[in-house]
């Protein structure tokens, strides 16, 4: 049997249909998010080489520039990774923006939020009034507060320590 040919179908229309669907955009966001997360992990690994000494970090830098050198030129792989990261970041941001716009368009009216009437004093946040000394996040360092009663302590301004 002869199969009917679809008119108007091309690979570009398949990509357009994939990008036009919400699930397609979510898959793009998941893939680009995984790429960006992998970059963060490798970047952390490279930064931790600083603690291993100058030879380790220099070896990492040489590796980044000579990766794939027999096939591609010096530092070409590094530029390819940079382009992929830029493309992944761009696609991730665009997909997130378009998905959020689609989400807002699906429900143009906001959900109602119940307003609870409370007297004004309990609604005040902690930052709007001073904290009592017992709840202050930075307690003052006093010798008697830690059970140390010594007058031979050097002050911090003269280069001493608090122990």
Mean pLDDT: 76
Number of strands: 0
The level of helicity is 40-55%
Classification by helices and strands: mainly alpha
Low-confidence stretches: 143-150, 152-163
Whole-number radius of gyration? 30 Å
End-to-end C-alpha gap = 91 Å
Distinct helical segment count: 5
Morphology call: flat
| SSE ordering | HHHHH
Beta-strand content bin: under 5%
The largest pleated sheet is described as: none
Short description:
The protein is mainly alpha-helical.
Describe the structure.
There is one protein chain. By secondary structure, the protein is an all-alpha fold. The protein has a domain at 20-106. The chain is 52% helix and 0% strand. It has helices at residues 11-20, 22-48, 54-66, 76-106, 120-123. α1 (11-20) crosses α2. The longest helix has 31 residues, at 76-106.
Could you give the topology of this structure?
Layout: H1 11-20, H2 22-48, H3 54-66, H4 76-106, H5 120-123
Helix pairs in contact: 1-2, 2-4
């Amino acid at each position: 049997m002869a199969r009917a040919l679809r008119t108007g179908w091309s690979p570009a229309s398949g990509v357009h249909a994939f990008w036009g669907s919400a699930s397609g955009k979510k898959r793009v966001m998941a893939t680009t998010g995984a790429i960006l997360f992998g970059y963060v992990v490798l970047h952390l690994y490279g930064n931790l080489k600083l603690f291993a000494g100058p030879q380790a970090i220099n070896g990492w830098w040489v590796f980044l520039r000579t990766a794939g050198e027999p096939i591609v030129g010096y530092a070409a792989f590094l530029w390819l990774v940079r382009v992929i990261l830029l493309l992944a970041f761009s696609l991730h941001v665009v997909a997130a923006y378009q998905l959020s716009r689609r989400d807002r368009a699906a429900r143009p009216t906001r959900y109602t939020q119940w307003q609870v009437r409370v007297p004004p004093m309990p609604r005040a946040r902690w930052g709007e009034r001073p904290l009592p000394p017992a709840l202050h996040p930075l307690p003052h360092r006093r010798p008697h507060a830690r059970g140390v009663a010594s007058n031979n302590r050097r002050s911090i301004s003269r280069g001493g320590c608090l122990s």
